[in-house]
Amino acid sequence: MDAVNEIRLALHEHSPMRSEPVDCVIWVRQDAVHANDYNPNSVAPPEMRLLQLSIQADGYTQPIVAMSEEDGRYEIVDGFHRNRVGREVGAVRKRVKGRLPIAVINAGRTSREDRMAATIRHNRARGKHSVDTMADIVVDLHRRGWDQEKIGKELGMDADEVLRLRQTTGLAAAFADREFSKAWE
């Protein structure tokens, strides 16, 4: 893996996209990666389980963003929880051979203040899911044959949340082909 990383780094030096950190994702030994001491983000247990399922089922689709230190170690700027899954989930740790995917932030952005600001930007830029859109997805998955349990497992929701989302759009759909008296107008 070290040889593969060297090849990637050499290609990255000549890439027209070398100013973009994601142009070069390297696989770093877990013991060379450490958390920062300023990240205010926390993930609730249901979302942490969903992240674990996501990485187990889909693999690492987003690298951990880190700053390269002079001693060859890397400090996490974004991706602490992806880091935790890679370290703490045995099947994932084994699959990635004790390594973590790292994209290194641009060298000009390594001051503590820049790193702190980058961490907050990454955390806040994630956005939130719209209830209406999530309800449409849940109803569509149900129509496509997924039962409530599978929807809950795959989307990281408990049974009540799945039911509430199904009811949000499901009620109107359930009665769409019915005719009502004018008293309802």
TrEMBL record:
SUPFAM superfamilies this protein is in?
ParB/Sulfiredoxin (SSF110849)
Which is one Pfam family of this protein? Answer: ParB_N
- Gene3D superfamilies linked: Conserved hypothetical protein from pyrococcus furiosus pfu- 392566-001, ParB domain
Q: Name one GO biological process term.
A: cellular response to oxygen levels
| Organism superkingdom | Bacteria
Any coiled-coil ranges, and where? none
Q: Where is the ParB-like N-terminal domain?
A: 26-124
Protein name, as recorded: ParB-like nuclease domain-containing protein
Q: Which organism is it from?
A: Rhodovastum atsumiense
Task: Give the classification, highest ranks.
Answer: Bacteria, Pseudomonadati, Pseudomonadota, Alphaproteobacteria, Acetobacterales
